[in-house]
Input
Amino acid sequence: MDFQYLFELLCGGVVKGSIYALIALGYTMVYGIIQLINFAHGEIYMIGAFVAFIVAGVLTLTGYSGLGILPLAALIAVIYAAAYGYTLEKIAYRPLRNAPRLSPLISAIGASIFLMNYVQLVQTPDFLPFPELVPDFEFLGDLTQFMSSVDVVILAVTTVTMIALTVLIKYTRIGKAMRATQQDMVMARLVGVNVDRVISATFIIGSVLAAIGGVLIASRTGQINSAIGFMAGIKAFTAAVLGGIGNIPGAVLGGLVLGVAETFGAGYISSAYEDVFAFGLLVLILILRPAGLLGKAVKQKV
Amino acid sequence: MSHLKRSLGIGLWFMFLTLPLMVVRVNTVSREVEWRWSNLVWVGICAFAIAWFWQFSIERRAAQRAKVAAEPHPEKDRPSLAQRLADDPVLSRRVLLAAALIALIFPWAVSTTQNFYHVNVMVSALIFVVLGLGLNITVGLAGLLDLGYIAFFAVGAYTYALLAKGFGLGFWMCLPLGGVMGMLFGVVLGFPILRLRGDYLAIVTLGFGSITKIVLENWDTVFGGAAGIAGIPRPDFFGLPLDGREKSIYTYYIVLALVAVTIFVTNRLKNSRVGRAWMALREDEIACVAMGVDMARTKLSAYALGAFWAGLAGVIFAAHNNFINPDSFTFMDSAMVLAMVVLGGMGSILGVIIASLALKLLPEYLRAFAEYRMLVFGAVMVLMMIFRPQGLINNMRRKYEYDTADVESNDGGK
Output
């Protein structure tokens, strides 16, 4: 047993998993509130990465350089992703709030296809090299054989983001309103919660998380493309289901489990079938424990 | 005036929204930044116009609903064109006859010995009609959203390719085998996901579809990998030698016959015992099971039958193209077949046929439009769900109608 290899894979898996977790949170929050798989969530992630790429590209080519680029690019990406998420909800989902369940799902698939092709048409269908924005950290020393400095940034940012999200949901007014809406939309409305605003806020928060994930993973893999959102979206959804959809700690756990399982599968069995492990895990979980790892089985009433 | 203001605001919002993506293009090779400000103007104008129209449509829809709700005894809806056609047996028979005649003459009329492009296009379109009608069983009738439907199409295509190349089996031998293989896959995949509903089902079928494609791409000793399989024989006509045009026309008639059979079978199924069970399952699963419908059998049969048609269509697809590779079986193809069912009107046979032909033929003949095809698909799927969720042609169901006024007055007289 090669422990160094094992540890390398574990680190890679955790880094990958924490990104899945970031995107999965958006799915899970939206699903918890309006029971909709937001298929276009992966596209929001892709748009976030693209905006960051454009901002970083313009800044580097016009002569700016230095540490400020990454935070600035990430900030603008987050703003734009939030705007796209908000608009998406208003156009594609809000008119269908009371429609049969298949309708918003199909609308979501349509929105996803639309956004993917929109970026492909106005930008490019080719892969673009994402600039290296994270400097090499000297203090890592020997640790670099397991983790690059990008990985450290990813872990730090995701941890901070998740703590911030927990605080937001547990202690703020909007967080309270979100939890109330999740439990019972009608009752929440009766006690004076503006449900429409809560739903918009949920989409915005989810999109912000997705954009952060997009920027981080783009700086790790070093390339982006208009189609990256699709796979990432599916994987993140898998992570959300794995942990129990609608359950926020579940999404984080699901993301980590998925990331580690995938990296181990790719590392020990075959890297060509990486995606197959993710889907296989999804199918297995749904068959054995349809409510997910942390989810509670809900009995359906008639 | 408030409309104008709102539309203006929406126009500005979209200009902001599309600012980085539509205006700036960073060329990383030549290290240049391209600014395309003219796009922004267009976005502003279009968003303004669409917002104006959008508000108008939403308002009109609301007014219509209010009107319907306000009337205690709404007048019966004016029957649609399709409804009137179906209600009039003489007329519907004539229309059907005319359509059949046109379909039969079509390949001879539009092709010459050198140029039979139109026939080939039509064959591809008809293959997708079969696919659409097959998915219509699973999604439209039984309400099981399947996002990996194209995988069964792939199973049929690869079955024929492998059997024909490896064992020298003929087309007619493989056609039923492809269908049966598709069906087997449908049952095998259907079993584990019987318990899942709606969204979960969608995502798992999507997963299955993607797994199929990954396996086809990577298992190159059997499936030829990303390069696919070439040199698949075309259907033979009792061993007679056929030239290119005749081969295409022959394939055309085969698909046409398959379309006819599919229409016939789906039509009969719709009003059969199992068809009614599907529709009941679609409307309310729990109530349906409570009424004594065997859920597992009903779901599996819907899955298997949908997959069966995809398998048949796959065999013809492989035979028609002589060449297949995994690129023909992506999620986008699944989404396109789904779009055909949704746009046509879930469960409606005529609607699905029209939508399939339109979605396949329009991009083929409007080349300028082809680039924007998927963009338009996506937008149309969203708009259709908002403004016309029942699709182009409403699915007609047999109903027992009674006059509510009578019932109420009887109750009152008691």
About this structure: Chain A touches chain B through 67 residues (CB under 8 Å). The mean pLDDT of chain A is 85.
